[in-house]
Design a protein that fits this description.
The protein has helices at about 20-35, 50-55, 80-100, 105-120, 135-145, 160-170, 190-195, 215-230, 250-260, 295-310, 315-325, 330-355, 380-390, 420-440, and strands at about 65, 130, 150-155, 175-180, 185, 200, 235, 270-275, 290, 360, 370-375, 390-395, 395, 410-415. The protein has 14 helices and 14 strands. The chain has about 450 residues and is of the alpha/beta class. Mean pLDDT is about 90; it is low at about 1-20. It binds 4'-deoxy-4'-aminopyridoxal-5'-phosphate. 4'-deoxy-4'-aminopyridoxal-5'-phosphate binds near residues 238, 277 and 289.
Length: about 450
């Protein structure tokens, strides 16, 4: 039994005289910390807060120009439409919107997503779709379902930090394959596949963090090799529709179906699990993402999701559906493409103008990020400390490397700051880089 004094505010403390209240309050603070901190599960050992996270907290100060987060531009959030959609949901489905609902997700929303995916050659049924709390939850559930401690997962280098965070908690190990301007280096893939990874995690479109896109030839070769070695893939695609130039490239799910000769009807082999999200297309605060997988896998994911949160918010799913339907999502995506396309242009122009010649960067055709490689000898974590003094921030590249490295790289986000702010921020960053280069000699 806990002594009554540690139980908190419901234990009649208010009725006690002030002197005994003080003693009680002290014991309340002292006891629980060690009682819990000594009991953390082993699998949380690698879930730590890094020095970089501590530095990034400083970027939240209002006067810092941040190229750090992956935030959509708040100016383009469809406030009016989401407001109208919320009112319609409450007026037309009030009780259902506030009630518990099925774990699989709101059926009309799943049907709408199926219809949208079909445009890109992903032909599945709503039974293949599970709505998740953003695609981050899908990554977590995938980790829980497939990863035993010590299992090796093949990831790109660099790769999405959120996937590493989710899978570190599942005690994953990693096999990494480097990337270049055309995405994953297919010429280095086979040796990694021979190691026998449990699955591959690939971001073919406007990769986070690199901004790179996997070329069509490489996509085809990737799917062939995955089949040859029998290694399944997770295709994470939050940004595929945010293309600002060039032609859309087919998703790996479709290329896999083509390879197996499924040309009509249900074209889904199940070898590729596909993840996407409404976070970047509507609003991340809705927390609506989805996973496409074979029905048997969906059923297992559903069981795990029940343990995590029962289901994604009924209200958020219905609002997302009401806002997205009848063509609004398409119209809205066109607006976002225009705004982000301008911001990307502003950043590329500012980089040309202000960055020293020795610095290199990617030229993403879409998405939210670009990737900078500094001259040898410059460390981006050190650079961030100096940049913060000039009130400008970014994410050092080391965070995205599953097995260390990348000290001379960094990620810049161009969706959140306006073009003027981008210009000023890149100017400051260029100056800091020049100073560091000069002090390096
Ligand atoms: N995957 C990738 C590659 C991402 O960049 C993000 C968001 N930064 C996510 C998954 C998670 O997005 P959400 O949970 O908001 O859907």
């Amino acid at each position: 039994m806990e002594p009554i004094a540690t139980l908190g505010l419901d234990s009649g403390l208010e009725a006690q005289p002030a002197s005994s209240r003080a003693t009680v309050a002290r014991s309340y603070q002292e006891v629980p910390a060690t009682r819990w901190t000594q009991r953390y599960a082993q699998r949380t050992q690698r879930v730590t807060s890094s020095a970089i996270r501590e530095l990034l907290k400083l970027t939240e100060q209002p006067d810092v120009i941040s190229f750090g987060g992956g935030l959509p531009a708040p100016e383009v959030f469809p406030l009016i439409e989401v407001n109208a959609a919320s009112q319609r949901v409450l007026a037309e489905h009030g009780a259902a919107a506030l009630q518990y609902s099925t774990t699989e997700g709101y059926r009309p929303l799943r049907e709408l997503l199926v219809e949208r995916m079909e445009r890109y050659g992903i032909r599945v049924t709503p039974e293949n779709v599970l709505i998740t709390g953003g695609s981050q939850q899908a990554l977590d559930l995938v980790g829980r379902l497939f990863i035993n401690p010590g299992d090796r997962i093949l990831v790109e280098e660099p790769t999405y930090l959120g996937a590493l965070q989710a899978w570190n908690a599942a005690q994953a190990e990693y096999v990494t394959v480097p990337t270049d301007d055309d995405g994953l280096r297919i010429d280095q893939l086979e040796s990694a596949l021979r190691v026998g990874p449990k699955f591959m995690y690939v971001l073919p479109n406007f990769q986070n963090p690199g901004g790179t896109t996997l070329s069509l030839e490489r996509r085809q070769r990737l799917v062939e090799l995955a089949n040859h070695y029998g290694v399944p893939m997770i295709e994470d695609d939050p940004y595929g529709q945010l293309r600002y130039e060039g032609e859309h490239l087919p998703p790996l799910v479709k290329l896999d179906a083509d390879l197996h000769g499924c040309e009509d009807g249900r074209a889904f082999t199940g070898a590729v699990i596909y993840l996407s999200t409404l976070s970047k297309l509507l609003a991340p605060g809705l927390r609506v993402g989805w996973v496409v997988a074979p029905e048997a896998v969906i059923q297992r994911l559903v069981q795990l999701k029940q343990g995590a949160d029962l289901h994604t918010s009924s209200f958020a799913q219905m609002v997302a559906y009401e806002a997205a339907k009848d063509g609004f999502l398409d119209q809205h995506v066109r607006v976002i493409r225009k705004v982000y396309g301008e911001r990307r242009h502003a950043m590329l122009a500012a980089l040309e103008r202000y960055f020293p010649e020795e610095v290199r960067w990617t030229r993403p055709g879409g998405g939210l990020f670009l990737w900078v490689t500094l001259p040898k000898g410059l460390d981006s974590t050190e650079l961030l400390k100096h940049a913060l003094q000039r009130k400008v921030a970014f994410v050092p590249g080391v965070s995205f490397f599953a097995q260390g490295g990348g000290a001379e790289t960094l990620r810049l986000n161009f969706s959140y700051p306006t073009p003027d702010v981008i210009d000023e921020g890149i100017k400051r960053l260029g100056e800091v880089i020049k100073e560091r280069l000069a002090s390096r000699g």
